[in-house]
């Protein structure tokens, strides 16, 4: 067996029962072959064995009390995966499906994504199987305080800087930050996505969705086209989906679908985002309500948004939400481009189908890096004790996404095929981290 296959087999044996983690590892290992096999230095330094094994895996009990006075127990996680190029950085996910495999896949992806941003941030991820849906404000606050009571000893502005992900937005970051400050007596940039009155950055809320549309626009520009006049199918209706829809609309696209875990809406006239924001950001309601309020819209509680004909597909909900049969439908409907706003939303066979049919495909590590990039800019502002304007942050975000597109395209051309952005992103992300690991000798 060669080096890559040996490592792959060892990682699979050591991480039995972790399918999402193995899916993410397989994708990276299968695409970095041209680099790893071009120089024995990677094998000599055991880079693949090291990069697939987290530096530290923290699991802890999170006790909290519900509104009926019952003691409830969840499990908390923080995976500090790799800090070769900066402090561990990555979000916290609160969702009942959270388990070790999911947090490890997210942490692993984060290493390469953060490297692509060009900013000094390592890879980490955390969360809990706590379900925020239907919980009262007090229950959310109690959970967040308990979660941070344990997490606080493991993190710090120069050690590990968590942020939001599914189920964690400004409200939860506020409670987490308040508890950290209380325990540590430190007013430091230990979390990103903070409120604007206490160290948050303008444009962090918009960053992931905007960044996704900026890089997909770059990919389209390389084909002499753009969002203007295109129909856009988006899944999800959370933070990433909403701001992807906003920027895609601003650039002249027509967003025709959005979804949540109960169902999806189709509005052939173009989704009215002020209504989605009111339902999701203000009332914390269900996407179904959109169809009650907008005459031109349909609501479906079965099937998926991918059955609607579109030019551009932006999956922005969760992992493995776009399977091979969805990819077939999209291809049949002549989709031009797919950009992954969520982390690992496309199953491997779907990606292969897109490649086979020459669908332009921008993978998550590159496509959704705008969120963590602006998180890193929030860290810079906290260190400087300054706040930049929205325009300043947005313009830096645009530059960063342009840079990621250029690096990804360049690595694809040098080591794989010209438009193989999956290989390009993995290789460009890997090279920086691997070289730092080799230089540091540990
Ligand atoms: P939110 O919690 O704001 O929104 C998540 C959306 O996806 C909701 O509409 C939710 O529906 C839907 N969803 C979540 N889980 C499922 C599921 N199992 N099945 C169907 N629908 C689901 O999260 P974000 O928008 O922040 O995150 C979305 C994706 O983007 C995730 O993959 C995340 O990892 C990724 N991401 C987020 C970044 C950020 O800055 N926030 C940065 C980079 C990537 P419902 O309300 O019904 O649960
Ligand atoms: O997946 C991701 O990149 C995020 N959830 C954002 C992480 C961050 O630190 O801003």
Could you explain the architecture of this structure?
The protein has helices spanning 3-14, 19-31, 33-36, 41-44, 47-51, 100-116, 137-151, 170-184, 204-221, 239-250, 273-282, 288-293, 324-332, 348-356, 364-367, 369-384, 390-415, 421-440, and strands spanning 56-65, 71-82, 88-94, 122-128, 160-163, 231-235, 254-260, 263-266, 298-300, 312-315, 337-339, 360-362. By secondary structure, it is of the alpha/beta class. β10, α13 and β11 (337-339) form a beta-alpha-beta unit. The longest helix has 26 residues, at 390-415. It binds NADPH dihydro-nicotinamide-adenine-dinucleotide phosphate (NDP) and (2Z)-2-iminopentanedioic acid. Residues 89-91, 113, 163, 165, 192, 343, 371-372, 375 line the site of (2Z)-2-iminopentanedioic acid.
Which key terms come to mind for this protein?
about 450 residues, alpha/beta, seven-stranded mixed beta sheet, five-stranded mixed beta sheet, 18 helices, about 50% helix, about 15% strand, binds NADPH dihydro-nicotinamide-adenine-dinucleotide phosphate, binds (2Z)-2-iminopentanedioic acid
Shape: globular
Question: What is the tally of beta strands?
Answer: 12
Q: What is the topology, as strand order, of the major beta sheet?
A: 9-8-7-6-10-11-12
- Percent of residues in beta strands: 15-25%
**What is the CA-atom radius of gyration, in angstroms?**
21 Å
Mean pLDDT: 98
How many individual helices? Answer: 18
> What portion of residues is helical?
40-55%
Element-level helix/strand string:
HHHHHEEEHEHEHHEHEEHHEEHEHEHHHH
Termini, distance in Å? 26 Å
Bound ions, cofactors and other small molecules, one mention each = NADPH dihydro-nicotinamide-adenine-dinucleotide phosphate, (2Z)-2-iminopentanedioic acid
Biggest sheet descriptor: 7 strands, mixed
Low-pLDDT segments = none
Instruction: Give me the secondary-structure category.
Output: alpha/beta
């Amino acid at each position: 067996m060669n080096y890559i296959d040996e490592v792959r087999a060892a990682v699979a044996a050591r991480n039995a029962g972790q399918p999402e983690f193995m899916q993410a590892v397989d994708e990276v290992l299968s695409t970095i072959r041209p680099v790893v096999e071009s120089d024995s230095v990677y094998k000599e330094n055991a880079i693949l064995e090291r990069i697939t094994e987290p530096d530290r895996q923290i699991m802890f009990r999170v006790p909290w009390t519900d509104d009926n006075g019952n003691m409830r127990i969840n499990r908390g996680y923080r995976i500090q995966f790799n800090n070769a190029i900066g402090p561990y950085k990555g979000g916290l996910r609160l969702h009942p499906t959270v388990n070790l495999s999911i947090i490890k896949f997210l942490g692993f992806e984060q290493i390469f994504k953060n490297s692509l941003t060009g900013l000094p941030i390592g890879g980490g991820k955390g969360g809990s199987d706590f379900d925020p849906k239907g919980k009262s404000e007090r229950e959310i606050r109690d959970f967040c305080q308990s979660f941070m009571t344990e997490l606080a000893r493991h993190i710090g502005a120069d050690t590990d800087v968590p942020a939001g992900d599914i189920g964690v937005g400004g409200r939860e970051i506020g409670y987490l930050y308040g508890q950290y400050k209380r325990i540590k007596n430190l007013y430091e940039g230990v979390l990103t996505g903070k409120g604007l009155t206490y160290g948050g950055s303008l444009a962090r809320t918009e960053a992931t969705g905007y960044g996704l549309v900026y890089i997909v626009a770059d990919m389209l520009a390389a084909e002499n086209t753009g969002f203007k006049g295109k129909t856009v199918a988006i899944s999800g209706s959370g933070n990433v989906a909403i701001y992807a829809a906003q920027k895609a609309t601003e650039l002249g696209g027509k967003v025709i679908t959005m979804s949540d875990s109960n169902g999806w809406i189709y509005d052939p006239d173009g989704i009215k985002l002020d209504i989605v924001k009111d339902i999701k950001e203000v009332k914390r309601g269900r996407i179904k309500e959109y169809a009650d309020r907008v005459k031109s819209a349909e609501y479906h509680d079965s099937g998926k948004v991918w059955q609607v004909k579109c030019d551009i597909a932006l999956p922005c909900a969760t992992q493995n939400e776009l399977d091979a049969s969805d990819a077939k439908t999209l291809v049949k409907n002549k989709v031009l481009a797919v950009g992954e706003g969520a982390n690992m939303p496309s199953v491997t066979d779907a990606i292969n189908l897109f490649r086979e049919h020459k669908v332009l495909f921008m993978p998550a590590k590159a496509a959704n890096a705008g969120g963590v990039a602006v998180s890193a800019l929030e860290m810079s502002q906290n260190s400087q004790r300054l706040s930049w304007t929205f325009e300043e942050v947005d313009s830096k975000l645009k530059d960063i996404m342009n840079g990621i597109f250029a690096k990804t395209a360049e690595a694809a051309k040098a080591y794989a095929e010209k438009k193989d952005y999956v290989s390009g992103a993995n290789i460009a992300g890997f090279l920086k981290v691997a070289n730092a690991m080799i230089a540091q000798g540990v």
